[in-house]
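call fold(seq) -> tokens
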Amino acid sequence: MSTGSSDEDLRETLLEHSDHRAVRNVFQAHVGGGEADLTDLLETMRATDGVVALVAQDGAADVYARWNGTRFEHLSVWPPWTITNYDHTDRADLERFLDGKANVRPTLHDATPFASPTTVGSLQRFWP
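ret:
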């Protein structure tokens, strides 16, 4: 479940919030010593107040999900940097949306397009 870049920062963030069972499960999975399910990953976003986000693959698209403090949001970005899906939702709907996506894993919010509104605003939008 390791993400490579910012790996140490992600580990530190997970340790800082390890009083939550879900975060402990995600930490153990991240370091290779356990498993975390989608429910644990979503709860970790909320428990870390959005510092931890998720990234997954849907075909060629990168799918990013975050907790913004009041709701869950997800964004799909297809090469070359075209937004094809953005929505805000509740936990159950986000879990259904991410179920079946490949390689769902934690990342730091700062490593996602959500971290820079300017970047998100500059992406092309394609709404099917």
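Strands lie at 52-58, 61-67, 72-78, 82-89, 102-108, 124-125.
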